[in-house]
Design brief:
Glycosyltransferase; Beta-galactosidase, Chain A, domain 5; alpha+beta; 4 domains; Immunoglobulin-like; 6-stranded antiparallel beta sheet
Length: about 900
């Protein structure tokens, strides 16, 4: 979300910061074996090759035996990071206080790098052991012994903490830094996907774990699980590590076993994922903590590996973002018996035991009872505790309706004298200040373009595709005719159909005195002048505009009297021309996948449906050239940034369309690397984004964003992949997690923020609407009810409530639009261009389907239905009693009563 000049400047700064201590400024290809001067100790287990630095016994390399050339840890950066202050795997952080004192004292083994005192190894299970006294201040009241062990062929990192004082010691913070190679600075995309990892936390106490996945999404997955008494209580960013954080490095975090000291101070304004705890040690008393390292064969094998290692595993259906009208299920797999389950806040959830499945999973029924965050705490009889964090939201239809209302009232901007031509529009909103953002040092935020400025009006328009509202549509027509066409988008001249970078600009010499707020710092690179704001070379702005035209086409074409100011063909023509203009006027960035780029596929499909064959040919030809380029690359996932998680959506969809199966699969694997299945609403299906708070947020910092627009966008290819392979429940789970993640942060009154802040000091939504819109695009395009049958869990409904009786499955639709349905066992994809499906039945024996359509209203006298079957299906279905029109839709007259449609 920055122009090419500013991006290069930021990259130069990062380059200089990272390599200020490096004598050679060439590509870093050094491995540990090339640093004999550092001195290493080498060990092997059945799964790992471990190298430790001799003087400190911190990790120099952790490699899987199956691929010994790959290092999970940042060994390549060791020459720059070996100095004091840099964290490594093997370090430990603490906050302590003695009995009777209030002040916490901080200690870290990374503060100095004195030579440690090694201890003689006296048993076969211990690989290396050392006394860490020399790296701590003399006033540390603990003796800390660190061991690297191989227990039952599992690699274990263990710390023995002994109180050597004569007073009781309280440990208020205790963390183990998790240092893995997620720094891809100065890497090509090929190098980053081959050499780097992403890692995601399940902050679930004794059931918690960390998954470390290669960027390419294939190969062994490293799992870090608790050993001894080491619950995963919190996930703390290590902001003091000197490694420069930025668009190529998210930063390091630590696994926190105790966090009370932070909760009382730095985090006191946040509501933690888990209650903060501490531990007390009497004189001479020991506390042993640690983590164990496991390997899973693949991302999809993580849960099986945990089960094989007797770890508690939870699977929530349809996930952990739970609309109030959805009947959810929770499946638990663990040998230990469950002693109790607690809900916090009390009565936020209702949970009821249902049965034990044939394969031993305990099934519980879960129902949201109160809006907001909710936590389940499962206590097992062996003393282990597991937490599962849910987010309860209103029914989807209410969330979407509230959102549309908020956008077209609180965020509706009208000012006849606006000097930048932004009226009327849906403009960025500051929820903390309860006011519209009409000025910002980042021109795009208040300039109605880029994701950060277009996000709100894109959100409002995409909302109409899901749940059209006549009053809102009328306002948005005004916006398109008066502000978008001829304003944001050029309506004539050599740049016709080009999309401006911003309507707002900073040029005080050419504007009346008092135009700009004196309290805003306009001296930054982002305060574009008029000439810069009027440029059209940023391709990422075009899909927003194309989507607006396309939605208005769909509304005008499929509904009666809903759109009044232009006919459907005007909007379809503009959608087509915008797509073409992106390639012609913004060719540099158009070489990359675009966020919302899947809209071009929908435009192409409608061009064909309307018989606009010449336009369809032109659009398809231009997109084929782009797709051929992606097919020639190993990892075509760049953007303005060196690596990105937004282009995968379009790369996958066009690769799938043109039959580039290998490239589509490569893209899907890359998505799986950063879109996890974790029993926590914030991380389940949360596609990785960590720099866009800088460009689209109010609280600006590098930080893992919770359900930023990447979640909704990446759900598009994942759920398309699921429809291609309807037996793959894993894809459905993470895709649906991303889908509902797009709604998870919307407030009770309908405000949609840029994202949720993951830092434990914050844990709340961002203050402005920012770049939320592309995320809602993902929801609007993808929202559907998915019905699946799984051999472990039985009949499952995502986006609906299902019940089976005498071989008939009845499903009540709970999505906002109630317009899309995928039935996996018969590989059928049903979509409604107009009209709603209230419920349906599936005869599980014959495969026959009966839809119950909602009655007619003023704008929907007819329903338009399409059926698509996944290639390879063993039956050709048809709709009884209705014929297709020239656009390939089944044309179904509606009445004042519900209409049944039979499909067999």
């Amino acid at each position: 979300m920055m122009n090419s000049l500013s991006y290069k400047f930021v990259q130069l700064i990062v380059f200089l910061l990272v390599y200020s201590n490096c004598s050679v400024l060439g590509q870093v290809t050094l491995t540990d074996s090339l640093h004999p001067e550092l001195g290493t100790l080498s060990f092997e287990t059945s799964d790992f090759q471990l190298e430790l630095l001799k003087n400190s016994q911190i990790v120099a390399a952790l490699r899987p035996q199956s691929d010994p050339e790959f290092n999970f840890t940042p060994g390549e950066w060791l020459p720059q990071r070996k100095k004091a202050g840099y964290y490594h795997l093997g370090d430990i952080n603490l906050k302590l206080r003695t009995a009777g004192t209030a002040q916490w004292e901080s200690y870290s083994s990374a503060t100095v790098r004195n030579k440690i005192m090694t201890i003689k190894v006296e048993n076969k299970s211990t690989l290396a052991i050392a006394d860490l006294t020399s790296v701590f201040p003399q006033n540390l009241p603990l003796k800390i012994i660190r061991s690297w062990k191989s227990e039952y062929e599992n690699l274990v990192l263990q710390f023995d903490l002994e109180n050597i004082s004569n007073k009781e010691i309280e440990i208020g913070a205790l963390g183990i830094p998790m240092i893995f190679n997620n720094n891809h600075s100065r890497k090509t995309l090929d190098e980053a996907h081959a050499e780097n990892v992403f890692y995601d936390p399940y902050i679930g106490l004794d059931a918690g774990y960390l998954q470390v996945v290669r960027l390419k999404g294939t190969g062994k997955v490293l799992l870090v699980v608790p050993e001894s008494d080491s619950p995963f209580e919190a996930w703390r960013p290590l902001l003091k590590d000197p490694t420069p954080r930025g668009i190529t490095f998210e930063g390091f975090h630590e696994w926190m076993i105790h966090s009370k000291a932070y909760a009382e101070n730095e985090w006191q304004d946040a509501d933690p994922w888990n209650p903060a705890t501490s531990a007390k040690l009497k004189p001479g008393e020991h506390k042993i903590i640690g983590v164990k390292f496991l390997l899973a064969d693949s991302v999809k094998d993580i849960e099986n590996t945990l089960i094989e290692n007797n770890r508690p595993v939870a699977v929530g259906i349809p996930g952990y973002v739970l609309p109030l009208d959805v009947n959810a299920s929770l499946f638990i797999n663990y040998p230990g018996k469950i002693q109790s389950i607690e809900v916090d806040p009390e009565n936020a959830l209702n949970i009821e035991f249902k049965e034990v499945t044939d394969s031993g999973w305990r099934k519980y029924l879960v129902k949201g009872e109160r809006w907001g965050r909710a936590r389940l705490t499962i206590l097992y009889e062996d003393g282990n505790r597991q937490t599962i964090n849910y987010k309860v939201i209103k029914p989807e239809e209410e969330v979407v309706a509230d959102n549309g209302h908020f956008l077209t009232t609180a965020q509706w901007f009208e000012a006849d004298n606006d000097p930048f031509g932004r009226s009327p529009s849906v403009i960025t909103y500051d929820y903390e200040e309860k006011k519209q953002v009409t000025q910002d040092s980042r021109a795009w935020i208040c300039g109605l373009s880029d994701e950060g400025g277009a996000g709100s009006w894109l959100n409002a328009i995409m909302k109409q595709l899901v749940l059209p509202n006549p009053e809102e549509v009328n306002k948005l027509e005004d916006f398109i005719q008066q502000t978008l066409w001829g304003g944001i988008q050029y309506s004539d001249g050599p740049l016709k159909y080009g999309v401006r970078k911003s309507l707002f600009y900073y040029e005080p010499d050419s504007m009346p005195t008092g135009t700009y707020h004196a309290d805003i710092n306009y001296t930054t690179w982002a305060a574009w002048n008029k000439e810069h704001a009027e440029t059209v070379e940023r391709s990422y702005n075009y899909p927003h505009v194309a989507a607006a035209h396309w939605v208005m086409y769909r509304l005008a074409r499929n509904y009666s009297g809903l759109v009044k100011q232009q006919k459907w063909d005007w909007y379809l023509e503009k959608a087509f021309q915008t797509a073409v203009a992106m390639v012609d006027l913004a060719p540099h960035y158009a070489q990359f996948g675009q966020m919302e780029g899947s809209v071009f596929l929908h435009i192409l499909a409608d061009l064909k449906a309307e018989g606009w064959w010449e336009q369809a040919r032109q659009l398809e030809q231009k997109m084929k050239i782009r797709t051929d380029h992606w097919a020639s690359l190993n990892y075509p996932f760049g953007s303005e940034m060196p690596w990105d998680s937004t282009g995968q959506e379009e790369v996958f969809m066009w690769s799938d369309y043109f039959g580039y199966a290998a490239k589509a699969l490569t893209t899907l694997h890359a998505i799986l690397a950063y879109m996890p299945a974790i029993p926590h609403w914030a991380y389940n299906g949360n596609a990785r984004r960590y720099w866009d708070f800088l460009y689209g947020g109010k609280l600006t910092r590098i930080e893992r964003q919770i359900h930023h627009y990447g979640s909704g966008l990446n759900a598009i290819p994942v759920l398309k992949a699921y429809r291609n392979s309807p037996d793959d429940l894993y894809l459905l789970r993470i895709g649906y997690g991303g889908l509902l993640g797009a709604l998870s942060n919307i407030t009770m009154d309908g405000f949609a923020p840029a994202a949720f802040h993951s830092f434990p000091s914050t844990l709340k939504i961002d203050g402005i609407s920012g770049d939320y819109g592309p995320g809602f695009y993902g929801y609007a395009i993808n929202s559907a009810t998915f019905v699946s049958y799984d051999k472990e869990f039985g009949w499952l409904a995502f986006g609906g409530n299902a019940r089976e009786n005498n071989h008939v499955l009845n499903v009540e639709m709970t999505t906002a639009s109630k317009s899309r349905l995928f039935i996996a066992p018969i590989q059928m994809w049903i979509t409604m261009d107009a009209g709603q499906i209230e419920s349906f039945t599936l005869d599980t024996g014959s495969g026959d389907v009966v839809l119950q359509l909602k009655a007619a209203n003023t704008y929907t006298p007819r329903a338009y239905l399409r059926i698509e079957q996944v290639p390879g299906g063993n039956r050709n279905y048809r709709v009884n009693d209705y014929q297709k029109n020239q656009r390939g839709q089944y044309d179904i007259p509606l009445t004042d009563k519900a209409v049944q449609v039979k499909i067999n």
